[in-house]
Amino acid sequence: MIQYQRYVLPNGLRLIVHEDHSTPMAAVSVQYDVGSRNESPDRTGFAHLFEHLMFSGSKNAPNYDEPLQMAGGENNAFTNNDLTNFYVSLPAKNLDTALWLEADRMADLNINEESLSVQQKVVVEEFKETCLNEPYGDAWHHLSALAYKEHPYRWPTIGLTPEHISEASLEDVRSFYERFYHAGNAIVVVAGDVTTEEVYRKVLKYFGHLPSGKTPERIAYAEAPTSKAQHELVEARVALDSLYMTFAMPHRTHPDFFVIDLLTDVLAEGPSSRLYRRLLKEQELATTIDAYVTGTHDAGLVVIEAKPREDVSLETLEEAILLQLEELRNELVPGLELEKVKNKLDSSMAFSELSIVNKAINLAFYEGIGDIELINTEETIYAKVSTEDLQRVAQQYLKPEQRKCLHYKSLGEVERLPLPTASE
Fold first, then answer.
1. Which of 40, 54, 127, 155 could disulfide-link to 162, CB 3.0 to 4.6 Å?
2. At what angle do helices 95-107 and 196-207 cross, to 10 degrees?
3. Quick one: which of 66, 69, 76, 63 has its CA closest to 110?
4. 180 with 34: CB under 8 angstroms?
5. How big is the chain by its Cα radius of gyration, in Å?
6. HSE-up of 207 (CA within 13 Å, CB side)?
7. How many H-runs (helices) and E-runs (strands) does the chain carry?
8. pTM for this one?
9. What distance in Å separates the CA atoms of residue 233 and residue 238, rounded to the nearest whole number?
10. CA distances from 183 to 15, 59, 203 (A)
11. Nearest to 100 by CA among 58, 51, 49
12. Phi and psi of 300, rounded to 5°?
C-alpha cells in the first residue's frame, strides 16, 4: 500500500506527496498531459521534440544539468502517446534545486532559433537511426496506421516523418509549449525522505504563482469496429520476416484491461507460456514471440509479435497463432496456469515499488489516467480475475475477423521502401 496525499493548487497544478523515510533520497516527477495524441496530423513528433527541448535551459537556469549535478541529482524523461514525464532523483536535502529547475522551465523555457535548431537536428538524427536505418524500425509507423484510422494513435510518438520536425517553425513550437506546458496541465509528484507539509509549502513557493493556462480539451475518438481481418505487406531489407498481429481492446481503466493483460501473460510471459512453448519449442515455427498490451489511456491494442524460422512462411505462423487463440476462446485456462502468471505479476509490481523514482512515476501516471487509487487497488483487481474471465475476453476481443496484421517481409539486399508521407 502506497500512502500519499493529493492536492490541487489554485492554478490547477496537481501535487502528490509520498513519504518514504527508508531512504535519504527524494524523487520528483513532473508529468504533462501531452503526448503524440495531442499533435496535428501535419505537425507530428512535437511532444517528443519537447522531451529534448525542455533541457535547453530556462530564464534563470540557462543550463539545466549543471545545478542538478551540483546537487547530486540525476534526471531523465520519456514521452508516449498520452504523456510526457520528466523525473529527477537527488538527496532529499537538496529538493529545492529540483523544484526550482522544474518550475523555471515550466514558466519560461529557452525557446529560440538556436535551441530549436540544435534539438531539431538531434531528433531528426534519432528518427533516422531508430526508424529509417534500424531493421523493423518503421514497423510501428505501418502498424499504428493499420490499427487506427481516426485516433491520433495512428502515428507513433517519434512522428510520421522527420520533415515535421525539421521544418517546424519557431512560432509552431512556441505555440505548442504555451498550450501544453503549464501548471494547469501538469502533475508534480514528490516521493522520498520528505514531509508532506514541507513539500506542499515548497511546491506552493516555486509553482504557486505560475499561470494555470487553459486545460486542453480531451477529444473522444470513435474507431469503427473491424468485421473483417485486415493485412498489410511491407517488404524491406531485413534479416528475417516478422509478423505483427493486433486486436482492439478497451482503455486503461476499463475492467477488461486487467483481464486481457493477464491473458497476454498466459500467451507469452516467459519460456513456459503457451506461444513460446508450443510455437517456438515444440512446433519450431518461430524464433521469437511475444504478446503484450499497449496500455494507452484510450482504447488500446493487444499486440502479438513473432519472427518465423527461415523455412516457415508468415501465413503458416499466423495460422498457428490463431489456433492458439481459438483454444483460449473454446477452453478454460487451468487454474494453476492462471495462478502462475498472477504470481509473476505480483512479483513485478512489488519490485517496481522498491524504487522511489518508480513510485513517483507511477503515482503521476495513475493521477493522469484519472484514478490514482488504482496504484493500490490494481493488485486486488488482478487477483480476482478468473479463468472464466479469460475465456470471456478471448471470445470478445480476440476474434480472428477482428485482427489486423502486418507482414514484414525480408527482401535480402533490396533497398528499404520509404516511409509513407504525411499525405498518405
1. 127
2. 30
3. 63
4. yes
5. 23
6. 35
7. 15, 11
8. 0.93
9. 14
10. 10, 17, 11
11. 58
12. -110, -155
Sole residue written with cell 513519504: 19
Give the closest residue to 411 by CA, choosing from 243, 234, 236. 236
- What CA–CA distance (Å, rounded) separates 143 from 368? 26
Start-to-end CA span in the chain (Å): 48
Domains and CATH numbers, the chain: 5-207 (3.30.830.10), 230-410 (3.30.830.10)
Provide CB contacts within 8 A for 135, sequence distance 6+.
236, 237, 238, 239
What count of other Cβ atoms lies within 10 Å of the Cβ of residue 114?
A: 10
Distance (Å, rounded) from C-alpha 261 to C-alpha 400?
19
Extended beta strands in 115-224, E state: 186-192
Using DSSP's 3-state secondary structure scheme, residue 28 falls into strand
Q: Mean pLDDT for each consecutive 10-residue tract of the chain (424 residues)?
A: 97 98 97 97 97 96 96 97 98 98 97 96 96 94 96 97 96 97 98 98 98 85 88 94 97 97 97 96 97 97 97 97 98 97 92 91 97 96 98 98 97 55 40
